[in-house]
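Troubleshooting log. The previous structure file for this entry was overwritten by mistake, so regenerating from the original sequence record. Sequence copied from the archived sheet and checked twice against the printout by T.R.
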Amino acid sequence: MATSKQVFLESTAANTHPFSVEGKTAIVTGAGSGICLSFAALLLSKNCNVVFGDLSLRPEAQKVVDTYSSKTAGKPRAVFQKTDVTDWAQLSRLFDVADAEFGGLDILCPGAGVYDPYFSNFWHPPGSPESKDPVAGNSYASLDINLTHPIRSTQLAISHFLDSSKGAKVSLTNPKRVVIISSIAGQCANLCTPLYVAAKHGMNGFIRSLGPLDATIGVRVNGVAPGLIKTPLWTEHPEKNKFVDQGKDQWATPEEVAEAMLKCMEDPEMGGGTVLEVGKDQTRKVAMLNDPGPRGDGNRVSKMQVGLDEVFEWLGQDGWGKA
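Regenerated output below.
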């Protein structure tokens, strides 16, 4: 029987066949802003077509799509497809768009995510005034977005890669890529955001579990684990931003994360199942076992006690959790 160490080594074995994003086609959910927009823009700059999947495009994302919208021989192109990632039919539609517009797919980044918003939050249960999760809905929107959507998207991608009617079938000489956005929350615990933490722990396990696909069938599933990244996910949400000491805490940039995502796909040493942590001016592999955990600039906030006090204030209210 294989030991845990053997399984870890097998799941992160490097596939030495070269892979370049140039001339490829990618689906990127959440590309309307933040990290995923930076990643989509980086792919386009390297001559890779991108299907933008999101509910809407921020002005800066619309500018990128407009810049790369024309059909010009030898040039990459961007296409926007409005997508609610909690709807599996809309996720499937992204693959149809990639086929129709570009004749196939090589790269998936199911990057859309939320950071325990009040509308789907453990501390605002279904039925509470802040929550949009219906009492009889049988799911949390935050988990549908952060956990179920990347799992289902990856499942769809692998099926697509194996289907010879969708273009050249995946193989060790025709590799494909999936890059997932996890978080340093996947290595930590946080009473303030338990659903987000649960989802990101799940993502790390999912990424590592699919690691052996790289060396066996040519599908590399890797992930990045960003820390504190200066994106609208933080800066435009006061309930999150209050955790940050603007004079002390350091932000990493979405561009740093995008570069790590590119490394996950192209670097032959980043074998399947690899998770790269990204802080400010630092990127490192996260070990499955006995990892020291996140540290350094861009991997911490100084005012988490504010959030903890808030949680206990909510729990002190009469009737908490009763719909």
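The CA atoms of residues 16 and 268 lie 5 Å apart. Archived copy saved in two places this time.
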